[in-house]
Structures are given as C-alpha cells and as structure tokens.
Amino acid sequence: MDNKMLALALLNSDSESEVIDLLKKAGYWDDPGAWRLLGDKDGNYSTIGNQQARPEAALVEKIVNSVDARLMNACLEEGIDPESHRAPRSIRHAISVLFDGCDPATFREGTIADWTQTKTLEQARHITVAITGNKPAQGRPCVSIADSGEGQSPGLFPDTFMSIDKSNKLRIPFVQGKYNMGGTGALKFCGKQSLQLTISRRNPRIIEGWREKGAKWTSTDPRDNEWGFTIVRRELPSGAAGDVRNSVFRYLAPLKKNQGDVGQVLSFKSESIPMFPDDNRPYSRAGGHGTVVKLFEYDSKGMGSHAFMKGGMKTPVETLLPHIALPVRMHECRAYRGKEAASFATNIVGLGVRLNENRADNLEDGYPTTASFVVQGESMTAQIYAFKGDKAESYSTNEGIILTVNGQTHGVIPKTFFQRERVKMGRLARSLIVLIDCSEISVKAREDLFMASRDRLSNGELRKQIEEELEDIIGKHQGLKELRERRRLEEISNRLGESKPLEKVLDSIIKNSPALSRLFLFGQRLSKQHSADTDEKPGGGVGREGGNANFEPRPHPTYFRFHKRKYGDSLDRNAEIDRRCRIKFDTDAQNDYFERSHLRGMYELEVIDGPLEGLVLDHNMNIHEGIANWSIKLPDERVDVGNKLTVQCTVNDETLIEPFVNIARITVTPHQVHEPPEKPYSREINTSGGKKSEGGTGPDGEGGTSRGQGAKDSGGIALPEIEEVTRAHAAWSKYQFQDSTACKVIEDEVDGQSSFTFYINVENLSLRAEMKDSKRDVVLLKKKFVWGNVLIGLALIHESKRVPRKANAEENANVVDVFAEIDGVTQAMAPFLLPMIEHLGSLSEQDALSVATRGDDD
Question: Which helix (H) or strand (E) holds 489?
C-alpha cells in the first residue's frame, strides 16, 4: 500500500496487534534502520519516564498542545510573529484578540465562559477527543486527539513532535507549553509497545504567508505541503553486552537515498484527510491541515465506562483543565447501546465554566465566593465552591484544592486538607472545591511551586506558606463557618437528647478511671436554646456578624470602608506578636469582585510607615455577603512588641473614578491567652483536684487554648456527639461508609473550640456476626461496640494533640490525618473489639494467676 493508505489504515486501527501487522507488511517493523531515536537522544527514557504520574494528566498535555496549536495558527494567520511585541501577552489576551476580535491595544481578558453555545460548539469542533476501540470488558480503548491548528510539515517533525527539551515555545507568552517534553508523558500509558501515531500537515496559508518573509515559521522543504506521519514505539533493553540498561523510544523515520544520514518521517500528498469524528463515527469529517495524535490501548481508569458517565474520562479531563482556553469536543465512539448510547458527543469547557452552570441547583447560596491573597510577594486568587449535599462528587473525586496556571491544573491538594487542625471544615470536605489561579506568579515562583511535569506540587517553602495562607482563608471564612454550623445543627436537631445514656456511661468510665480522668475533659453539648439562637438572620446567613438586612450586591462597589465606620475614618488596631492581624470592612461588592474575568477589582496592601515600610506582607482578602475580611501576617522576626506601623488598604477597578483608600495604624502587642466568656449551658467534669477547668481561644479563634491548669496539662477533649449510622442514614454515602467501616469522626469548631461528631457503623460486618451468634443481649452488644469505638477514637485524637506527628508526604501537612487513622484503626479493631470487651472483662484474678502458673510449669 502507498503512504496515504498506510497512514489512514494505521489511524483506523484500534489495537497494537493491528498496527504491528500493518508495519510488518510494509517492511518497517523489523527493520532497525527505519527507526530514529526520539529527540535524537540515546537516553530519552530518563525524560519521557519522568513525566506525569497519572494517565489522565498525560492525556491532558496532548489536549493542551492542541489548544496551543490553535492559538499559534490564529496568530500566524494574522501575520503576527508569535515572539514579537505585537503578539498577545497571555492566553486570555490571545482569546480576546484572536477569537473575540477585540482591539489588541486595549487589554481585555477573553474567556469561553462568555461565549454563546453556538460559538462554543463551532470552536469545539476544531479540537476533538475520540475514544475508540474496545469497551472495558474487551480490553483497553484508544484515544485520538485531533485539531485544525498550525500543523507541522514532514521536515519539521524532528524539531517539533519528535523533539525533547527544545525551546520551541519558550519565548511565546500566549501558549501553555514551555519545556518541550510534557507531550511525551502519555507514551508510557500506551499498551505494551507504547505505540503513538502522529499525522500532521502545515496550514498552507501559513506557508504562503510567511515564505515571503523568510521567517522561521516556514521553510523551503519541497514536502512542506504534504502530510507527514510516524509511529513512536518503545524498545526494551535486549540484555546483550554493551546494551543500554533502560528502554528507549524511537519513531518511524526510514533512511532513504539522498536524504542524508538520518531518517525522515513518511509523507503523502492530499488536500484533506478524514481526521475528525462526527457523533460516534471516528475519522469521518475531513480536515485540510492540523494534527491528529492517536494513543493505542491507553491505560486509564477513565476508560472504564462511558466517557460521559460517572467514572468516565470527561470528569477528570475537565478537572485538570478548569479554565481551558478553548473548548474541546469529546466523542464516545465505542459500541455502547441503549441508554449508554444516548449521547455520543459533548463539549469540554473546563471545570470552572461547568461549576457556574446551574449553580442554583448545585451550589449553596452565595457561592462561588472568592479570596485574593499574596504570599512571598506573589498574587493568587481562590474561588471557593460550596455544593449542596453530594453534588460535588459529579465534578471531582478527591481533589479539594486545585492549583492552576493559564487554565490547566498544575497541582492538587486532596480533600483531607479541610480536616486539618487549623481548618476544621471536615464536615464540608466532600462539598468543597477550591480553584487557585496561579497564572500571575513569577517564573521563579512557578518553578519553585510546581514540578516541570505540571501535575504535582513541589514540597518547598513556597508551597508550605501558600497552604498556611489557605488554612487561614478557609478556616476563618465566615460564610463557610456559617454553613458548617448550619449543617451541624441540622444533623443534631433531632437527637439532642438521644445521647444522654452514653453521657452517663462515659461519665462513669471517666470517674472510675483516674488515668482517663487526667486525659479527658468533657463539656456538655449545646442545648436546643443555643441552636435557636443561631437561626438565620435576614441578609446575613447563620448569625453573620454585622449582617445588613438591606444588603444588595453590586458589580462595582459604591462603598468599601472599615466595619461600622464612616469612609475616611482611620482605624487603630492591636496585633499580637505571633497572631494574624484581621481587619473587617463593609462593602456592597459582589462576592466574586476580585476574581471574575471582566472588570475585576484590584486590591493592594502597603506599609507606608513603620519598621516594615515598603515590605510586601503576606495577606489575604475575601468578600462574603457584604463583609470583606483582610487578614495580614506580620513577620515575627522583623517586628518587636511596641512597634507601630501604618498600612494603606486600596481597592480599585477600571470603572471607579477614585480608588477606595483606608488607613489603619497597627500596634504590635505581646502574645496573650484569651479566656472565653462563661456560657449558661457550660458544664465540665472535674478532672483536676476539685478545681473547675476552663477553656479559651485567642481573638477570632486564633492561637492556642488555655483550659485551666488541669486541662492544659492533660489536653482535655470535649464530650463528642454520637451518631449511629445504618445504610439508610445520610452519612453512609456522604462519608463513604462500607460494610467494614467502624467509626468515622468529623471535627467542627463551636464557640472557638473543637467539637467532634462520631459516626458509628451499627451495620458493621463484625458487629452483625457477633449479634447473630451471641446469646447475650444484642442491644447491649451494639452499645458496647459504639462506646468502644468512641473510646478508641478519643484516644487517637488525644494522642495526636499530645505528640507532634510527622508530615504527610502527599499533602505536606503539618500533622498526620488523625481522622483517616481513626477510620483505619477502628476498622482493623472491629473483629476483635467485642470479644476483647466480653472475655477480658470476665477474667478474674484466679484466671490470671492460673495462666501465669501454667506458663512457669511449661
């Protein structure tokens, strides 16, 4: 067959065996001289094998390359040199100028979120992802990514598609690619032979338009107008003497006469080829230029079901491209029938756009909300999405915080972040997704924060400080605190009196065990009267301090002033030496004022007088329902008690005639221990020699606690809430219970102190087996199982507070996730718990003595 027939036959193959058969018949597969080293590097596996850790992230790199190709194509067709000063300055600027037709001199950010459905579909058809071949039960499917981008001529393949570590895009500001290696990450997920097909043709308009200029964006190669194609494969070490110890990747580039001493990719002439899918028919729509890449037998969990259904490929792709620059059309082309085949194609528009669709059905009122923050002088923005019920599961799995650059996910912090000691949002963990836009950070910061593979975070100081700032933003976010409290009260409203017997049992255990009395400090749970006091207030949510019943959000604020003060009034504020300084403002700006794509607000914090004058301080700002909170971190090593500094808080946008400027004078004061006010419902068990223990937290919940001398020494823990969970209970799915689960714990913050809710699985397999086989009272057995798990959980919580834990490598957290530890330990203990309680509790002194004597006789 000729080259065109071979290329199209390879494109329509859906297994490695088919590809190998075709190449053998063509005489290439077994010919060592037909294969050229990828990147012309003998040790190319060291680069290729060190890319993305997950197949979904590697696939996304291919999609990003197609987006870059479309942006480059639009720029070159306009006659603009992508490396010149005339080129767009960012990806969003490129969308604005090249796709929205805006004046390049007037910077306006372009985003597909503002496009009509018609325009979105029209543009999505220029970048497609087609899943073909086998359904999950029959083997791995294939993935084809096609675009009508700039394309490459056959002679440019070695310096583009088949190159490694070249600076092809390094000086182009409006594309994502930088390192010229990310696209190779998918190879190790392609079947046993790592086969990848690439077919491409340079856009003829670019060739003609740039040939006269003699620029590098074209060439005089006689094959410039032809389609080039090649196959990449992985070659394992043969074990022969002198052979390399690692695999190498090569691509099909046969040596031919009069072509020099290196092989060239194959090519053919054609005005177009069928490269794009239509509905569930792959390779049925023609394209005249651009690129199609096919990954054979791709290994990904997302291929395990229909692409658009739960567990399919669509969700991880949109999660990894939350603010994708251009839409993509995904096609499910496998042989699904019935309801599974109801949809063959859908647009990929990114998680950010998807989250904002149908927000009334998916999101809690007032969300998403935003927070802007600065760390080490680097500005970032957080979008916080709070979902109703379990709606978040449709958009992410374990991704809690997603850090992006130019719309692509570069790193993820899992949902366990929300359970951290300084956050205490475990009750909302499965309902939260936070998107962090890091597009504006410097090159150095980007390199320090992210691995070059763009799929994970570095464990450096910058990451640590960003996480500390996020802990403050989320843990102190007034709206999230209100939502957490509302959900907590909803759960306990019908069972406030149900745990009285448990309270008596635990009281008895504590009082009869001096050792436990020294460890635990139990406080009475909140009363119904307290619950009623925190009902929603008009315009402010659950007990929002300073709520304004007449608050009407505006796209651009008409006021931005210190809380409960007139505009122009200055503020005098103390800041303790090792705590953050928090300043509250009243405003009528919308929640997303500092993050939205058009005419967004800008804020600046300047030290204009004092020992830190001119220093950029770490800080964050968020707006929620008319209250803006500015949280400032003073560098402890640069200030002393008694220092005074003046800070200027400026808020501005393009529509304001003058910015809002507020001046605050901050005095550094010593660290103090703050005691909470006495509460009428408070009661504590005496654990310290007849003296009542008391609790307290620092201002705004900051800092450590002091519970009186006895409690301070023991690290007391308050009496938890207990919830018995069955399969019908909402917590079963909400907190992902299984038959083997025994105990899960959620931490909240109530009145500035930790409060724990224990969820006990009373349908645990081991418990059910004991209840079935035992002649004892099954109700009593169940209660013993509940109380035993509670005591185990309390012990682990106490130990986590007493002994500092090692960092979690995955999260770079400052403590081990004690709640995951409780889940694992109680699950392991479940088969032994009741037998241990029953049989060890019945042992007598005589039994112990007889065992000891028998051991001596032996």
Answer: helix 478-492
Contact 262, 253 (CB under 8 A): yes
Q: What is 358-485's CATH number?
A: 3.30.230
In single-letter form, the type of residue at position 703 comes to: G
Query: Do 662 and 648 touch, CB atoms closer than 8 A?
Result: yes
Helix H or strand E encompassing 782: helix 778-802
Chain-centre distance for alpha carbon 95: 25
Roughly what angle, to the nearest 10 degrees, separates helices 204-211 and 55-77? 50
Identify whether the C-beta of residue 623 lies closer than 8 Å to the C-beta of residue 584: no
pTM: 0.77
Residue 29 pLDDT > 80: yes
3 state DSSP class of 281: strand
Distance from C-alpha of 793 to C-alpha of 799, rounded to nearest angstrom:
10
- Which token pair is 179? 């390192």
What is the number of H-type helices and E-type strands within the chain? 23, 30
- Asked if 813 and 464 count as a contact pair (C-beta separation under 8 A), the reply is no
Q: What are phi and psi of 581, to 5 degrees?
A: -95, 125
Q: What's the rounded Cα separation, in Å, for the pair 101 and 727?
A: 56
3-state secondary structure labels for all residues of 17-33? HHHHHHHHHCCCCCCHH
Span 545-669: which CATH code?
2.60.40.10
Look at residue 567 in the predicted model and tell me its pLDDT.
94
Q: What's phi and psi for 751, nearest 5 deg?
A: 55, 40
> Angle CA(210)–CA(212)–CA(214) in degrees, nearest 5?
70
Per DSSP, the residues of 41-89 read: -TTTHHHHTTS-SSHHHHHHHHHHHHHHHHHHHHHHHTT--TTSTTS-S
DSSP class of 817: -
In order of 506, 519, 675, 682, 838, the CA distances from 516 in angstroms are 10, 5, 25, 21, 20
- The domain 3-69+111-350 having CATH identifier 1.20.58.220: the answer here is no
- CA separation for the pair 586, 626 (Å, rounded): 6
Q: Tell me the C-alpha distance between 744 and 757, whole Å.
A: 8
User: What residue segments make up the domains of the chain, in order of their start?
Assistant: 3-69+111-350, 358-485, 503-534+693-841, 545-669
Contacting residues for 179 by C-beta, under 8 A, at least 6 apart: 165, 452
Q: The tokens of 434 are what?
A: 């936070």
Judging by beta carbons within 10 Å of its beta carbon (0-12, 13-18, 19+), is residue 236 exposed, middle or buried? exposed
Whole-angstrom CA distances from 507 to 268, 512, 621, 791 are: 84, 8, 44, 12
- Distance (Å, rounded) from C-alpha 144 to C-alpha 66? 12
| CA–CA dist 201, 265 (Å, integer) | 12
Q: 571-576 and 290-295 as β-strands: parallel, antiparallel, unpaired? A: unpaired
Extended beta strands in 171-254, E state: 196-201, 227-235, 248-252
225 with 202: CB under 8 angstroms?
yes
Give the pLDDT score at 75: 94
User: Over the stretch 277-305, which tens digit does the pLDDT of each residue have?
Assistant: 998 999 999 999 999 999 999 987 767 78
Bridging pattern class, strands 141-147 and 127-133: antiparallel
The number of beta carbons lying within 10 Å of the beta carbon of residue 262 is 11
> Which of 308-312, 435-439, 693-697 is most confident?
435-439
Q: Which residue from 716, 718, 705, 711 is spatially nearest to 688, judged by alpha carbons?
A: 711
- Taking only the tens place, the pLDDT of each residue in 576-596 is 988 899 999 999 998 888 877
What's the CA gap between 685 and 691, in Å, rounded? 10
DSSP reduced 3-state for 120: helix
* 721 token code pair: 């809430």
Residue 310: Cβ within 10 Å count: 10
CA angle 123, 129, 134 (to 5 degrees): 155
Strand, helix or coil at 783?
helix
> Can you state the percent helix, strand and coil of the chain, rounding each to 5?
35, 25, 45
